[in-house]
Design a protein that fits this description.
Length: 255
């Protein structure tokens, strides 16, 4: 089974491609996490977990869900992480998570996809984003070939920098940066509720037709990047920056 969590669609796209390539079922963790559903999941022997990279590891909400959920029948697990640039030493923590689940760790693969973290970085314009997705194809095909063969993924770079970013920096980043305080809706907000619908932690509610953010946020960027009116800002850091979500690329390709 292919499990995935996504913020703005990159991981969903990769998970679907992997599931189709392996003829495996696809399981949406966003829906489970949003519903607080930790009922056992009948996965079969092999599990492929596809996630974005948050602070140089898999998202904390995903590791927490896995810690509370029985993967019935699972024996082996592969991790596929997409990122805008790098995943640090995430493999170390994925190996630990596999051990906690009593699963054989089959490695971690990194696939570069368009950046979405506009709370800190710049997302690419659509043409550049499309180019990045095309450039990711060889890495995706390699992942598929290794999965079909039941092979472990090749070890990734493991430098002092990687260990520092995934180690000490990760909890500091969550403590001081992963907050919803700076999100706000501008006057062009139409109160459509898209942000409420997409928030995996139920952290957004509508008050008087405008979104209000609570204290539980994972910085998935779904609220700001899927807003149809680009009415959501993250303080001053998002002003003037292009929004990115994968489905926008698919729509433009279909024209």
């Amino acid at each position: 089974m292919v499990l995935y969590f996504t913020g703005t669609g990159n991981s969903r796209y990769l998970a679907r491609r992997i599931a189709e390539g392996l003829d495996m079922p696809l399981y949406d963790l966003n829906t489970c996490i949003k519903a607080g559903d930790t009922a056992p999941v009948q996965t079969g022997q092999d599990v492929v977990l596809v996630t974005p990279t948050y602070a140089w590891r898999i998202p904390r909400v995903v590791s927490q869900w896995l810690g509370n959920t029985e993967l019935t029948g699972a024996e082996r697990i592969w991790f596929v992480m997409d990122c805008g640039s790098e995943i640090g030493n995430a493999a170390k923590y994925n190996r630990q998570l596999a051990a906690q689940k009593h699963l054989r760790y089959m490695g971690t693969a990194q696939i570069i996809m368009p950046e979405n973290y506009i709370a800190m970085f710049h997302a690419p314009q659509k043409e550049q984003a499309r180019s990045i997705v095309e450039q990711a194809e060889p890495a995706l095909q390699k992942v598929l070939a290794q999965l079909r063969a039941g092979q472990e993924f090749s070890p990734l770079r493991d430098t002092l920098y990687d260990r520092f970013m995934s180690g000490p920096v990760n909890p500091v980043f969550y403590r001081f940066f992963v907050k919803a305080d700076a999100f706000r809706a501008t006057d062009v907000c139409i109160g459509c509720g898209k942000c409420v619908e997409l928030c995996p932690l139920n952290n957004i509610r509508l008050e008087n037709g405008k979104p209000v953010w609570g204290k539980h946020c994972t910085h998935c960027m779904a609220c700001i990047c899927y807003c149809p009116k680009e009415a959501v800002e993250y303080g001053k850091k998002s002003k003037g920056k292009p929004r990115y979500h994968f489905e926008a690329l698919e729509k433009q390709q279909d024209v």
